[in-house]
Amino acid sequence: MLASRRAFLSAFATCAVPAVAKARVEQAPADETASEFAVHELSFDRVERSMQRARVYVPHELTGDQEWPVAVLLHGYAQALADSRALSAWGSEYDALGAYRSLAHGEVPHTAALGAARVQAISDSLQATPFRGMVLVAPVTPIPYFQRNLGQALTAYADWMQQTLLPAVAQLAPISTAPEALGLTGVSMGGLVGLELMWRFPERFGAFCGIQIAIKRSQAEPYAWLLQRAFARLGSGRSRPVRVVTSTRDTYRWSNQAFYQALRRSNIDASFELRDGGHTSRWMRNAGSLESLYWLDRTLQVPEPPPR
């Protein structure tokens, strides 16, 4: 069965990418290969650096008889300074693939960052409802700090994501591009970019998980207000869930906690996780990546296909 699934995804990818998405598809470097994933590197003819390349991880276990959710993974500032590091951040530095495997197999590793009680809670949940799976998309994250017009830059980035990147991914794997099936997760600067995208384009994304979001405490209330206004535009019953994940020694711990509290005061569907550790890639490997993928798996929904 595994071989047939791999053959399906290989044929799916080979037949259509260039004609539809105008993307060049290459195999990822050797250090980015993973036995349980097909790893693709997409290249686009764009002037903007953050819209030129992306890495896509397609689990071999995903079948072609249904559509799958998509998690867009946004990296931090240190990783943004070099394209090679930006593209490999989630696969190598944050070990999202290891976190995915652990969740898919129902074997949550015991780490000090997660703690015994959290490991048990996730394990029990996975035993009751197994991990469903998703496609992971890791583009180069734009640096928001030096933009003359941040709104214009993020609009271009969101348009590229919706009109170019996701159609290219759809030729590699049977994904759903419905908003309810598309989740954003970002760490540090990537959390800030994800937050900005979420309030500016709530109709395009179904959920946002911010990990150690790089915001000031004074920004917590304004961002909650922006999200409240954005979700109100969607209409009754169409709010988007928000997850805030931070750690005990995170540089942005108190601003993240203040942001979560502001979200709750704004009656936004928000949840919060505080785990042990600092603001490091090691903490992402031991807790952050797993927490974000676990929550997205429980949150994203692929709409039922219309009756024929």
Question: Helices and strands in order, then pairings?
Answer:
Blueprint lengths: L1 H20 L2 E4 L9 E7 L9 E7 L10 E5 L2 H4 L2 H11 L2 H10 L10 H13 L6 E5 L10 H21 L11 E6 L1 H12 L6 E5 L8 H13 L9 E8 L3 H13 L4 E9 L2 H19 L9
Shape: globular
Lateral arrangement of strands in the main beta sheet: 1-2-3-5-4-6-7-8-9
What would the CATH topology be?
Answer: Rossmann fold
SSE sequence, one letter per element: HEEEEHHHHEHEHEHEHEH
Task: Tell me the structural class.
Answer: alpha/beta
Tally of contiguous helical segments: 10
Radius of gyration from CA coordinates = 18 Å
* Average pLDDT score: 90
Number of strands: 9
What is the domain total for the residues? Answer: 1
CATH architecture classification name:
3-Layer(aba) Sandwich
Q: What kind of sheet is the major sheet?
A: 9 strands, mixed
CATH homologous superfamily label: Alpha/Beta hydrolase fold, catalytic domain
Q: What level of helicity do the residues show?
A: 40-55%
Low-confidence stretches: 1-21
The N- to C-terminal Cα distance equals: 28 Å
Beta-strand level of the residues, as a percent range? 15-25%
Provide the CATH top-level class: Alpha Beta
Summarize this structure briefly.
With 308 residues, this protein is an alpha/beta fold. It is built from 10 helices and 9 strands. The protein has a 9-stranded mixed β-sheet with strand order 1-2-3-5-4-6-7-8-9, sandwiched between helices.
Primary descriptors:
Rossmann fold; single chain; 9 strands; about 300 residues; alpha/beta; 10 helices
Written description of the protein model:
This protein is 44% helix and 18% strand. It is built from 10 helices and 9 strands. The protein has a single domain (2-299), classed as Alpha/Beta hydrolase fold, catalytic domain (Rossmann fold, 3-Layer(aba) Sandwich), CATH 3.40.50.1820. It has helices at residues 2-21, 77-80, 83-93, 96-105, 116-128, 150-170, 189-200, 220-232, 253-265, 281-299, and strands at residues 24-27, 37-43, 53-59, 70-74, 135-139, 182-187, 207-211, 242-249, 270-278. α7 packs parallel to α8 (220-232). By secondary structure, it is an alpha/beta fold. Residues 1-21 have low confidence and may be disordered. Strands 1-2-3-5-4-6-7-8-9 form a 9-stranded mixed beta sheet, with helices on both faces.
